[in-house]
Specification:
Beta-lactamase; 3-stranded antiparallel sheet; 11 helices; beta-lactamase activity; signal; Serine hydrolase
Length: 429
Amino acid sequence: MKAFIRVLLFCLPISVSYAQPRTDAVLMNLFATNQSPIFLEVIRNPDTCRLQIIYTQINRDKNNNPTFKNYYFNVDSTNYFNPASTVKLPLALLSLEKLNGLKAQQVTKFTAMQFDSAYSKQTKEWRDETSETGYPSIAHFIKKAFLVSDNDAYSRMYEFVGQSAINRTLHAKGYLDTRITHRFVRMTADENRHTNPIRFIQKNGTLIYAQPAANNTDPFDFRRVAKHGKGFYLKDSLVNQPFDFTERNKFPLEAFQQVLQSVLFPLSVPAKQRFNLTADDYRFLYQYLSQYPGETNYPKYDAKQYYDSYVKFFFMDSLHHQMPEGVRVFNKVGWAYGFLTDASYVADFKNKVEYMLTATIYVNRDGILNDDKYEYNSVGHPFMYQLGQTIYSYELKRKRQYTPDLSPFRLTYEKRNNDNRPPVKDVDN
């Protein structure tokens, strides 16, 4: 009883979910090996913290072809969590797919872009001094979205793809319970339905391709209500009622895991779930899903603030920010409103180990949203680290019939140049 009381101190009392969550004994037994107090308290009371976990074992045959086995802990697609920045992953893929579908052959992910405004709250963006060219581009947005989870990069990709195409395409690929309805700036539902006019230009400013402003008239299905907490702040005023996420973005954990798997192992998912990407797109995505901010020259992020494990929750130790030798994590994270979420593919080139791990947790002791009082550092991050280390330690010992050849994921990363440009700090993420 004492452990349960302590959990209630840092997790939100929640509404009841009547669906039966999936839990496998394999994970129950594995988690019992970790005696960390925080880890044990969360695992013993998963509903209190809205915890969901998917552990994916990867086994190779003699030809190095992988097979995947998912193990679930408290996974329930009807149990809403705020996906936060995790939706930047599908937006990056949809942006590349749209580029590949354009008939203007001169337009690539590296082509300079400019955003105009044509509707309420829309903003212009003609320059980006953090890029090597001084202009925005889809490639640069993806870098920023993956390296430090930049919010403006996501909103600009949202504007490029368009609200209608985002949701129609994801649903057509089989991600039916997913919806993406808004930018990461304060806008009304109507304003989020409208997206900016955009142009692609040559280095001398000559127009290559123009995309007009758009308005999505497709309806959304908001019948499933999602309200959390006991209150929230609206500007400086406390509203004593649950925060309504019903019309916000939704990205169930299984869909998140499958989207990442579709990028890293496209042949392992049904053809309709794959994205129309080129070989160079895949290489580019692999690099920036796993490269560290401190290795990158454009943008030149402050390596102290944005350390190696900054967006690698399963390896983000509060004391040491270095990653284990030989390990690269290909992942995307999200955090907002007390939710922490990560979907990762871990490749250990030194020990020849690979696996996927996806999880979300909610930490909000006072039940108030928008008060910036969430237990990320005291509970959320320590739990995610302990979860990551539990699975990693198990994988290091797990017997495999065939040792995986991880060479497709062995990349040449950038080296930071010593120049006089000031590093980028305090990104809106």
